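Possible regression after last week's pipeline update?

I re-ran a chain I had predicted before the update to compare outputs. Posting the input and the new output here so someone can diff against the archived version. Not blocking, just want to make sure nothing changed silently.
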Amino acid sequence: MTAEEFNKCVDLYSDSLYRFALKMLKDTHIAMDNVQDCFERLWVKHSEVDFAKAKSYLFTSAYHAAIDTIRKEKRRLEYASEGIFDTSTSNSYSDAKEILDRAVEKLPEIQKSVLLLRDYEGYSYEEIGEITGLSESQVKVYIYRARVFLKEQLVSIDNLI
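New output (post-update):
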C-alpha cells in the first residue's frame, strides 16, 4: 500500500471506525486512541496489507483492541470495587434510545460486537466472520441471540417504567 492509498484509507474509514470503537468502548478519548492505534498498525504493516483488504484489517484491529480494552477495564473495576456493594437502583423513565443503549451494554462482548458490526456498520456475515475470527454460522447465532435478548429487554415492563 502506498502513502496515497493509506491517506485514502484514513479519509474513507476513520469515521466508521470511530463510531464502531465508540459503540464498543463508550468513551470518546479511548475510542479515538483505538482508531489512532489501528491506523498506526496499518502504517507499520502498509507494505504487507493490500489496499483492497485495508478496511477489513482496520476493523479487525479495532475489534481486537476494543476487546482488550474492555477486559483490562473490567479487571481494573473488579479490583477497585472489591468489597463495595451498590444497592441503589434507578428505574426512572428514559427514551427508547437510552433503553436500547442500556440493553446493548448488557450483552456479552462477542454478541455486542457482532451486532454492532452487522446492524450499525452494515457488514455482511462473512465480513464479520473475517473480522472476529468466527465462522459465518457462529456470527448468525450470536446476532440472533443478541436480538432475542434485546427484544426481551425492550418489552420488559421494568425497563419501560
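Follow-up from reviewer: compared with the archived run. Residues 83-89 have pLDDT under 50 and may be disordered. Marking as no regression found.
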